[in-house]
Specification:
Layout (H helix, E strand, L loop, with lengths): L2 H30 L30 E3 L3 H8 L3 E7 L4 H17 L4 E7 L9 H10 L6 E3 L4 H5 L7 E5 L5 E6 L4 H18 L26 E2 L22 E4 L10 E9 L4 E3 L3 E18 L2 E7 L2 E2 L14 E4 L3 E21 L4 E7 L1
């Protein structure tokens, strides 16, 4: 065997030995280091809570549903608390509610307390009766507090709907998630913190690793963004396609558009511009929109009867949303969210909403 081959063999043996030693070292380190952080501030059983904040007090609450101030304060003592910041006309919030109500049914007897913090986006969402109707509609039995002045929202330093925080039985915030999704992850944290609570209190609680089985809404990959009718809410967003544009606090006669661009809305008729909405001042009017999505929702107020056209024809049954009646009609009776388009597949269409009802107010289009 020549010297070059011998040298290569010796060099290869040295490298292999070195890799084996490194592997042993890293394996030992893996066994010694116990990770404390998983995701979203989720913490395992060996916990140093010095880096965690306590959940803020519920402040500035204007009303209570399913509870009273004294009852709620007593209920929260020693419980794992899921704080759900939501508002009832937000479609993203509404999609999370089946999971939250199911968790309440499943874990309330094990030490979980859910507190809905209703922080309104629009003025009509501050109305006690409106919120009461919404929680009845969605089967919400856990406490809901009305944060009409957004003081608790600010105490949590929040900026989003919906948002979920989970505090352990000592009041430390251990989990934080913005928006929809990650339901199994959230439920796993509920299970872990309930087990931690039972161990700390010396309680015998039957643990479970199963998850609530609810089909999650699948968003379209490419869809029209939320469109705002209020000049303040739409600030820095190029969403109103009409050449007349926004004119704060004025009544504007919007004309029929010559062309319609994707992701832009076009009111037709006489509309008053508000900071959060538009109000139909003429007896009749309409709104046109070229969108891409499988689901279309509107947030509205004040009584009106709407007729829905898709690509110039009455709304086909396979596209009809759950709030559509009599083929292609929609009756607005309460302030809130209405589903007008619901199809299995995302596609591009021109929708026209013909409105009969002076005083009809529209706030947003939302999509899925």
């Amino acid at each position: 065997m020549n010297s070059e081959i011998k040298t290569a063999l010796i060099f290869g043996i040295i490298i292999a030995a070195g890799l084996a030693i490194l592997g042993t070292v890293f394996s030992t380190l893996d066994q010694q280091i116990q990770p404390t952080e998983i995701t979203d501030n989720i913490i395992n059983t060996k916990i140093d809570k010095s880096g965690f904040k306590k959940a803020p007090e519920l402040i500035g609450i204007t009303d209570y549903l399913n509870t009273t101030p004294d009852e709620l304060k007593k209920e929260m003592e020693g419980k794992v608390v899921l704080y759900d910041i939501w508002t009832y006309s937000c479609i993203n919030c509404v999609r999370t509610l089946p999971y939250i109500t199911a968790w309440n049914d499943k874990y309330a007897d094990q030490g979980l307390l859910i507190v809905g913090i209703h922080s309104p986006e629009f003025e009509f969402e501050k109305n006690f009766e409106n919120v009461k109707l919404a929680i009845e509609k969605h089967g919400i039995n856990y406490p809901v507090v009305l944060d009409n002045d957004m003081k608790t929202w600010k105490a949590f330093e929040n900026k989003y709907w919906p948002r979920k925080y989970i505090a352990d039985h000592e009041g430390y915030l251990r989990y934080d998630h913005i928006g929809e999704g990650r339901y199994q992850e959230t439920e796993k944290i509920i299970q872990q913190l309930l087990e931690e609570r039972s161990n700390a209190l010396g309680m015998q609680v039957t643990s479970t690793t199963s998850f609530v089985d609810i089909e999650e809404f699948q968003h379209s990959m490419f869809r029209t963004p939320e469109l705002y009718f209020g000049y303040k809410f739409a600030q820095n967003r190029n969403q109103l396609g009409s050449e007349e544009g926004f004119q704060p606090n004025k009544i504007i006669s919007y004309s029929e558009p010559k062309n319609t661009d994707l992701h832009k809305f076009y009111p037709i008729g006489d509309w008053k511009n508000y900071d959060d909405s538009m109000e139909l001042v003429s007896t009749t009017g309409s709104v046109k929109l070229l969108y891409n999505a499988k689901e279309v929702n509107i947030v509205t107020d004040n009584y009106a009867e709407l007729e829905i056209l898709l690509d110039g024809s009455p709304l086909p049954i396979e596209y009809a949303g759950k709030d559509i009646i009599n083929g292609n009609k929609l009756q607005i009776t309460d302030a809130g969210l209405y589903n007008i388009i619901n199809n299995e597949n995302s596609s591009t269409h021109l929708i026209e909403i013909k409105i009969d009802g002076k005083g009809f107010q529209i706030f947003t289009f939302t999509f899925g």
